[in-house]
Amino acid sequence: GAVVSQHPSWVICKSGTSVKIECRSLDFQATTMFWYRQFPKQSLMLMATSNEGSKATYEQGVEKDKFLINHASLTLSTLTVTSAHPEDSSFYICSARDTREQPQHFGDGTRLSIL
Amino acid sequence: AQTVTQSQPEMSVQEAETVTLSCTYDTSESDYYLFWYKQPPSRQMILVIRQEAYKQQNATENRFSVNFQKAAKSFSLKISDSQLGDAAMYFCAYRSGSSGDKLTFGTGTRLAVRP
């Protein structure tokens, strides 16, 4: 149980385009979803937290107009990187949980490469 | 703010032997959760074990156990009978029990298992 699916797993696109990453909870209701960014050989850094039906809460230093998060249902959250540039290239990971007492379960991550 | 420190960037263990990964944290809270996550080369974050701060008994999951020393703010992970599949990055993480859902990760320990 507690499976989180993230898609796509790898995307390469040109500078200036927008990229959407999906995060789905397959067998539980994801009341809260989280988006992380991980640079090579570094730890995960939380970008934002989203609760179903509410606006996402962004961490300090994360541009909310750059990284659009939508959490419209209890099983799906999306992260859209708008007007992506090479410095946005990174590994993006989502996680989801049901109640606060439950741990976060992570997706497989998306490797984003901007040329 | 809470901080999580993993002082061992890399560790190595012989197959079938036991290894202990260190983690210390800093917090002024009394209610919190601690986690160990494993990130294999596939990059998916896998929950290994969790510990509630209010529980005195150390958590155990098969070959994985923790040594939780609340007063010393230490949370080490012991892997017994190490297997080749245990090779991965291991991240220690902290989550407040009362304020927010944010997971604060340590910088990780890369574990190599020698056949």
Short characterization:
The complex is a heterodimer of chains A (115) and B (115). With 115 residues, chain A is mostly beta strands.
Textual characterization of the structure:
The complex is a heterodimer of chains A (about 120) and B (about 120). Chain A has about 120 residues and is mainly beta. Chain A has strands at about 5, 10-15, 20-25, 30-40, 45-50, 55-60, 65-75, 75-80, 90-95, 105, 110-115. In chain A, strands 2, 4, 5, 6, 9, 10 and 11 form a seven-stranded mixed sheet that branches. Chain A is globular. In chain A, about 35% of the residues are buried. The model of chain A has no long low-confidence stretch (mean pLDDT about 90). By secondary structure, chain B is mostly beta strands. Chain B has no helices and twelve strands. The relative contact order of chain B is 0.34. The model of chain B has no long low-confidence stretch (mean pLDDT about 95).
- Continuous helix count of chain B: 0
Total strands of chain B: the figure is 12
How much strand of chain A?
over 45%
Q: If helices are DSSP runs of H or I spanning 4 or more residues, what is the number of helices of chain A? A: 0
Task: For the record, give the distance between the C-alpha atoms at the N and C termini of chain B, rounded to a whole number.
Answer: 41 Å
Q: Poorly predicted ranges of chain A (pLDDT <50, ≥5 residues)?
A: none
Secondary structure class of chain B reads mainly beta
Report the oligomer.
Answer: heterodimer
Largest sheet geometry of chain A: 7 strands, mixed
